[in-house]
């Protein structure tokens, strides 16, 4: 549904370490660094994710109420994603990883904030 998602960062090295780890648990190869433009991109067959130092020179900030969701193949993979994030500078947020009953369907969700405060979610559809 999207071509790419890009978030701002104040620390490219911390972002690379964090996202290489969490996205690696989802089968995504390490990010490619564009040192000329201060950006890093992770690519998969389904889309692209990137981090950048803000072009306008202002400090990076996160969206209040915004969430970036990553597809997980299983609850176990979502748990690995969450653990990798916490081990690499992320912080757990929302409820602990687990099943959420949404009425017509059930989801397994795991939430994190990256080192810059962006809210992320690994989601696996159970039904």
TrEMBL record:
Pfam family, one: Glyoxalase
Top-rank taxon, per record: Bacteria
InterPro entries membership: Glyas_Bleomycin-R_OHBP_Dase (IPR029068), Glyas_Fos-R_dOase_dom (IPR004360), VOC_core (IPR037523)
Domain VOC: 1-125
Entries under PANTHER family matching the protein: BLL2941 PROTEIN, GLYOXALASE FAMILY PROTEIN (AFU_ORTHOLOGUE AFUA_5G14830)
Protein name (database record): VOC family protein
Species of origin: Rhizorhabdus dicambivorans
């Amino acid at each position: 549904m999207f071509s790419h998602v890009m978030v701002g960062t104040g620390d490219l090295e911390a972002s690379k370490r964090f996202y290489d780890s969490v996205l690696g648990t989802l089968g995504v190869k390490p990010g490619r660094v564009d040192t000329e433009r201060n950006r890093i991109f992770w690519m998969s067959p389904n889309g692209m994710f990137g981090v950048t130092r803000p072009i306008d020179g202002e400090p990076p900030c996160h969206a209040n109420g915004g969430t970036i969701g990553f597809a997980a193949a299983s609850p176990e993979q979502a748990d690995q994603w969450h653990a990798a994030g916490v081990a690499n500078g992320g912080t757990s947020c929302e409820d602990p990883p687990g099943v959420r009953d949404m009425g017509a369907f059930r989801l397994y969700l795991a939430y994190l904030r990256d080192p810059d405060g962006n809210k992320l979610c690994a989601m696996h559809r159970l039904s």
